[in-house]
Write a structure and sequence with these properties.
CATH topology of the largest domain in chain A: Tetracycline Repressor, domain 2
Helix content of chain A: 55-70%
Structural class of chain A: mainly alpha
Order of helices and strands of chain A: HHHHHHHHH
Mean pLDDT of chain A: 88
Largest interface: C-D, 45 and 44 residues
Number of helices of chain A: 9
CATH architecture of the largest domain in chain A: Orthogonal Bundle
Number of strands of chain A: 0
CATH superfamily of the largest domain in chain A: Tetracycline Repressor, domain 2
Shape of chain A: elongated
Number of domains of chain A: 2
Oligomer: homotetramer
Distance between the termini of chain A: 82 Å
DNA sequence: AATGAATGAGCATTCATTCAT
DNA sequence: TATGAATGAATGCTCATTCAT
């Protein structure tokens, strides 16, 4: 009747955290070939495991992409909150956020590619993306701006939510340009360039 | 931009410009299901032609996406240049560009979805995208900023290319948010919000 | 992005009725390897067409199995009705039905295998099978028996529906035995053996 | 029949006879989802053991199906022989066999489903099935009929082997109908209906 | 004996593209 | 030009089976 056989698998390599390994390999593979052109087999091969093993840790190829985002976003937000907790001045806070944003992504090109390119390829994902951690991130910026307005250092003829999107959009564009560039310049310093304009546009006087 | 046209009038069908019809249908279909999930057959059906006919006008599904971009970008740039030709003041110029950017995309949601979402789904395309009309567009902004610096109305401690990306990024984010939003607000007015900050950040004193 | 190519298909053989060809090949393949172990590719290869072509005529592998049954059953019932229409005597009618049943299946071993073996492999199918043409067939037998009872040639202490199942079961077992047998004896003559017992059990006195 | 038994008492679990438990669970699972759609994991879960443990008692999923048949058939034959040993009259013997056949399967619907539906899904299995216990069962019927012929109570113009298949086929059809029926009527009484016809057809005068 | 994580072969189905008409 | 039937390459996922513990 049914006749499936599995060959004699030789070396069972010991991979301590397979879930993390899969995520790492997937980021690499997605970055180099794009999500739709990446085969689950590519990811498994890169991670040094069997194809089927991927499905012990993730329900589908889609879920892998989601997990990459979830995990990175969670780390980013945690780190962000920690960093700005000690900064009282709203302008300095925004600057720190911008620096973090760019240094974080600038430190992991594969991750940056996935964030800037692959995560954008579907309306469906973009919407979930917006709904999830992303809006939490935007909110950190927004509330910082609102505080600055309250304390009088920022103009209050601006809607904080719009202003936060403007900052985010500017930073995002820096990352996208960096990702697509053939030149290999450091991304982090661009934060200052952005803030030079944005802060001047934001502050009173 | 390729602009092959079908004979003045078909023998059977009364579709004067099939190429344009295909592009229009493709924009609609890509917007609603995403590029990868759209079938060439869907596009043909929407355009009211046979599947094979698509290949008389386009070499591949990919080429359709490219053409959507090419055509829209060419129109946009032509219109942009015409509009700003008569405006002398750099600040007013930038404002006009921002308004055009948002009102153009705000007038055609399907097109906007394709621009903001579908065109981002592949590094390869993004790179071609950058190389092509897009950089021409960015350059209009950049040179306007450079002129403003020369005439002394804009700060000259900013790199024009970076400043142009910041403006573009901010506008782009407005569009993306609008596209993904479930609410149906008008996009064009956001141009003012962006310029309120950006210009203040840009001008000297 | 997507990159599918089709090789240069050389000879496009002309197969007049592809649907019928697929059904014929499927019957052969199912008979020799069993439904679950048959690949759609096997069927396509046997029919001399491409894999994908199968799906232009059938929605799924399941539907092929259903169609084999539908088509054969329809033919069988049509032929059965025609044959018995001219026979007045209920006993002779039943005999004719039995002969037809066995000579039909005895003439096409592959079809017989599919009927006796493959169609039984799933409760789901069996139920649809019962509900469909099969019950129509049983009903021809049942009503013939009922007529015989009315005219007094058959005992009326028997429920016609049960008696019809007994006859069907006996014939069915003859077919199954024949199908599974390694010996290659003619099936049709078994009809007499069955009727020798069944009719004697059925007639009055 | 293989009847390996697990040690009198397990160390951890309190499943005295795991082999039997697996067989019981498998019968349930096969009956509800079909052999091909049942996963070994489903069976293990139902039996409350680990997937791998199944393979300590059975070499393959196929072997489980075989074992279900072997075990049930062996029990059935043993019981059948015991029951008829005391019955001298061939007609009464056959009646007792028919009653047993239907009451046995009528008492365990899952088992009946496996017998009537799942065991039929493969020619290969059907052939082994015929070769094995099944032919032994048929032989009990056949020899009883032969004895009846010898003692003159049964017509001797019938081949006993064919007559035995007719009876078996009739009974088998009763079971199949009962299994597929949505109504929940008792199966055992159908034995009388069958024998009313069969015996009349069989006896002399 | 028991476990259950790991394996990897296997396959139905889709769909971009072609080409005979 | 236009058609649409035919092609066939491509792949995510399942699950029987193994084996280190």
């Amino acid at each position: 009747m049914m006749t499936r056989r599995s060959g004699a698998a030789g070396t069972r390599t010991i991979i301590p955290d397979k879930r993390a390994a899969i995520l790492r390999s997937a980021t690499k593979v997605f970055a180099s070939k794009g999500f739709f052109n990446s085969k689950v087999a590519d990811i498994a091969a890169d991670a040094g495991i069997a194809d089927g093993t991927v499905y012990l840790y993730f329900k589908s190829k889609d879920e892998i992409l989601h997990s990459i985002f979830d995990r990175a976003m969670a780390e980013f937000i945690t780190e962000g909150r920690r960093e700005i907790a000690e900064i009282a001045d709203p302008a300095q806070r925004l600057t720190r956020i911008a620096e973090l944003h760019l240094s974080r992504l600038g430190a992991d090109r594969d991750m940056a590619i996935v964030f800037q390119v692959e995560l954008r390829g579907s309306t469906k994902f973009m919407q979930e993306f917006s709904a999830a951690g992303f809006s939490e991130y935007l909110d950190i910026i927004r509330s910082t701006i609102a505080e600055g307005q309250k304390s009088g250092v920022f103009r209050d003829d601006l809607k904080p939510i719009v202003a936060s999107k403007i900052l985010y959009g500017a930073l995002d564009e820096m990352v996208t340009n960096w990702v697509l560039s053939v030149k290999d310049y450091p991304l982090a310093p661009m934060a200052d360039e952005v803030m030079k304009i944005f802060l001047r546009g934001l502050v009173t006087k």
